[in-house]
């Protein structure tokens, strides 16, 4: 039966009430975000001209790079005629004491009313390092609070993020540029209010539109939701994909893999021989023994308050979401020491969430394992990173009670839930050489909504 609809005049009142509540609570109204198409890369990089704030050599070098990408780059604060700023990049890499940031930050403040829908603000700064003088550390550390707070102030789908460079990594090193490109683009639509740490130099992809050309990628949980969209985005970016899911999802898995010309493997990742089965499958055609990237995406929810938790609720979640990941990577990394791994964590593993002690344990465990794998895989030329989605509209989250779902959507800085493609784009970015300088990190894709905080 269709739900009853309000008469037109009452609908108007309801809309006004909704807006009043949104404003009173300081919540953001949802706008349509500028997103990518998982099957095409035609979209322009930014939604309008790019303003670079800062006057030192790093600001000059970044402006030069943006010119090379054929962007309309401006160095003065005059608003572009008839166009709004698609992005503002603020160079803060030279900060040595609090106060030195003020002029540039206030200049940024002066242009915020001229941002386009889904515009980007990206800061470039240095990470606090061991041995930094207190004044240097104070100025560098401050940037994170600026970015996180600004993310909560921006409207109309605009986001604020930063790149935190380790000492020794230059603003035009491949990894810094690759990260800047991701943050400027529509691929980062639901990434907001965070700093991405770049600690290594990375490699510039030969073709920015197909950064994974020729690579072989395994994706678990590929039959639906985030996994299926990840398969599509990875294939768009040039990867040959081996998609894995449980036999019960075999038909859906086959449909997704056929769509992209990939290969389907029906496999329960908790099977004791799951790692060997994967090795055996990549050894044969069309992969012929090649494996570059492993995406640990399969996951389940069995939400219960701990007081009501049955052993099977706890054990199944930890087995699928965590133990299987560790076991599979242990087997695969022995054969492929330079593996690039991307694991699906969750903001519930960072902030905690009522009813999710089992899930929170598993996802915080994924972050712990990622940090442990990072130096091990780096020794072989690989990397390990995690993506922590917030509230994403999938069949998994459709099982959450309606009111809790609506709250999860509304309390983000973007006023809405994310889409599977938002997470898929973050996974594909971390899988690509573009992110070659990022290792052991957690990239949140949550619209600045940490569930449970
Ligand atoms: P989903 O339930 O829509 O899809 C998960 C897929 O994993 C399914 O196809 C399922 O069959 C498969 N799977 C489950 N157990 C498996 C097993 N033992 N072996 C092989 N495959 C198995 O979930 P989703 O929403 O797309 O989530 C994907 C990942 O992202 C999960 O790890 C989830 O925890 C994480 N995540 C999702 C959200 C969200 O809001 N949707 C938020 C945070 C994290």
From TrEMBL:
GO molecular function: oxidoreductase activity, acting on the CH-OH group of donors, NAD or NADP as acceptor
Top-level taxon of origin: Bacteria
Occurrences of domain Ketoreductase (ranges): 215-390
InterPro entries linked: KR_dom (IPR057326), NAD(P)-bd_dom_sf (IPR036291), SDR_fam (IPR002347)
PANTHER family associated with the record: 3-OXOACYL-[ACYL-CARRIER-PROTEIN] REDUCTASE [NADH] (PTHR42760:SF78), SHORT-CHAIN DEHYDROGENASES/REDUCTASES FAMILY MEMBER (PTHR42760)
Sequence similarity: Belongs to the short-chain dehydrogenases/reductases (SDR) family.
Name of this protein: 3-oxoacyl-ACP reductase
Organism: Serinibacter arcticus
Taxon lineage: Bacteria, Bacillati, Actinomycetota, Actinomycetes, Micrococcales
């Amino acid at each position: 039966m269709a739900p009853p609809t309000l008469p037109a005049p009452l609908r108007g009142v309801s809309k006004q009430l909704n807006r009043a509540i949104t404003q009173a609570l300081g919540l953001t109204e949802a706008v349509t975000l500028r997103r990518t198409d998982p099957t095409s890369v035609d979209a322009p990089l930014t939604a309008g001209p790019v303003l670079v704030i800062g006057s030192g050599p790093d600001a000059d070098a970044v402006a030069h790079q943006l010119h090379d990408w054929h962007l309309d780059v401006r160095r003065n604060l005059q608003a572009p005629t008839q166009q709004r700023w698609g992005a503002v990049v603020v160079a803060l890499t030279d900060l040595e004491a609090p106060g030195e940031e003020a002029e540039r930050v206030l200049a940024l403040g002066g242009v915020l009313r001229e941002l386009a829908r889904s515009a980007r603000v990206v800061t470039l700064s240095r990470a606090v390092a061991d041995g930094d003088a207190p004044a240097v550390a104070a100025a560098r550390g401050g940037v994170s609070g600026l970015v996180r707070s600004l993310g909560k102030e921006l409207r109309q789908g605009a986001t604020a993020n930063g790149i935190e460079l380790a000492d020794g990594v230059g603003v035009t090193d491949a990894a810094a540029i690759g990260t800047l490109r991701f943050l400027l683009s529509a691929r980062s639509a639901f990434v907001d209010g965070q700093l991405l740490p770049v600690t290594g130099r990375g490699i510039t992809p030969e073709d920015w539109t197909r950064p994974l050309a020729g690579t072989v990628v395994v994706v678990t949980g590929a039959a639906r939701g985030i996994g299926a969209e990840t398969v599509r985005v990875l294939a768009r970016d040039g990867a040959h994909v081996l998609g894995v899911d449980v036999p019960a999802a075999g038909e859906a898995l086959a449909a997704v893999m056929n769509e992209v010309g990939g290969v389907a493997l029906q496999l329960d990742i908790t099977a004791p021989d799951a790692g060997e089965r994967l090795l055996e499958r990549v050894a044969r055609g069309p992969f012929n023994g090649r494996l570059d990237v492993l995406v640990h995406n399969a996951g389940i929810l069995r939400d219960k308050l701990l007081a009501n938790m049955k052993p099977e609720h706890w054990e199944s979640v930890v087995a699928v979401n965590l133990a299987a990941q560790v076991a599979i990577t242990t087997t695969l990394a022995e054969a492929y020491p330079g593996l690039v791994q991307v694991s699906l964590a969750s903001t519930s593993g960072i902030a905690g969430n009522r009813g999710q002690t089992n899930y929170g344990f598993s996802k915080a465990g994924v972050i712990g394992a990622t940090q442990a794998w990072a130096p091990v895989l780096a020794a072989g030329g690989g990397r390990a990173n995690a993506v922590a989605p917030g509230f994403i509209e999938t069949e998994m989250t459709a099982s959450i009670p309606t009111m809790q779902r609506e709250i999860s959507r509304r309390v983000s800085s973007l006023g809405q839930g994310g889409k599977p493609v938002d997470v898929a784009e973050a996974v594909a970015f971390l899988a690509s050489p573009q992110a070659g300088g990022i290792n052991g990190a957690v990239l949140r894709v949550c619209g600045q909504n940490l569930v449970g905080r």
